[in-house]
Amino acid sequence: MGGFLIYFLIIMIVPIWAQFKVKNTYNKFSKVASAEGMPGAEVARRILDANGLYNVQVKETPGVLSDHYNPMTKTVHLSSENFHRPSVAGAAVAAHEVGHAIQDQQGYAALRFRHALVPVANISSNIAWIFIIIGLLSTAMSNMLLIGIILMAAGVLFQVVTLPVEFNASSRAMDQMVSLGLISNREERDARKVLNAAAMTYVAAAAVAVMELLRLILIFVNRNE
To answer: How many domains does the chain have?
Structure first.
């Protein structure tokens, strides 16, 4: 019972800590004006044009930290604050999303694989727990638990594959901002802090998903010994 309680606390605390970290870091550096005075929209446009991505649009989207790149429409979406405000955080986030656009342009293998997994992960994640709950409630229906584990594994694989995609986009973002002179030397460390904090949310989500999958696998194996 004690071990289960510790496990439960870990899978609850780790994601909360990661979310707190990214929000705290983002809030801090969103208030720090960038030396170049460029809002996120301009930072994104500069990097896109420098890489020949003239067809990729930059649009404002509602919400906070709702920034993303849509490979279907070839559009970089920036939250209102990052779109308009010239801040270190806004520049870092905008550059990161453009990093995904560059990945898309260059056919980055991990990004392609993640895109291919999207429909499978969406379906499996929605129905996996139905089979898992049925399998956990009835020892006579272990096969249902196994089906749930297999479905859940697809969603976990998606989260694991997301890690290199996100880290690579951040690396590209830093390279582009530095080489194009979009941030000053003293701002490099701050921009990296923003990107690293954001990456931790993906690391935490993947770690928790893997732990939960392993726990269910152990339950299944112990039942069938």
So the answer is: 1
Q: How much is the average pLDDT of 129-142?
A: 88
Domain that holds residue 155: 2-223
Q: How far apart are CA 183 and CA 164, in angstroms?
A: 24
pLDDT for 160-190, tens place per residue?
A: 999 999 999 999 999 999 999 999 999 999 9
Per DSSP, which regions of 32-177 are E strands? 57-61, 68-70, 75-79
Please, what is the Cα angle at 138 between 215 and 12, to 5 degrees?
35
The answer to whether the beta carbons of residues 35 and 187 sit under 8 Å apart is yes
The pair of structure tokens assigned to 198 is 């954001």
Distance CA 91, CA 28 (A): 14
Strand order in the sheet with 75-79: 57-61, 75-79, 68-70
Look over the chain and give the mean of its residue pLDDT values, rounded to a whole number.
Answer: 93
Query: CA-to-CA distance for 132 and 209, rounded, in angstroms?
Result: 14
- What pLDDT band is residue 127 in, cutting at 50, 70 and 90? very high
Q: Which of 189, 134, 112, 126 is nearest to 154 (CA)?
A: 126
CB contact at 8 A, 47 and 95: yes
Average pLDDT over residues 26-40: 94
pTM of the model: 0.90
89 with 29: CB under 8 angstroms? yes
Q: Which residues are catalytic?
A: 97
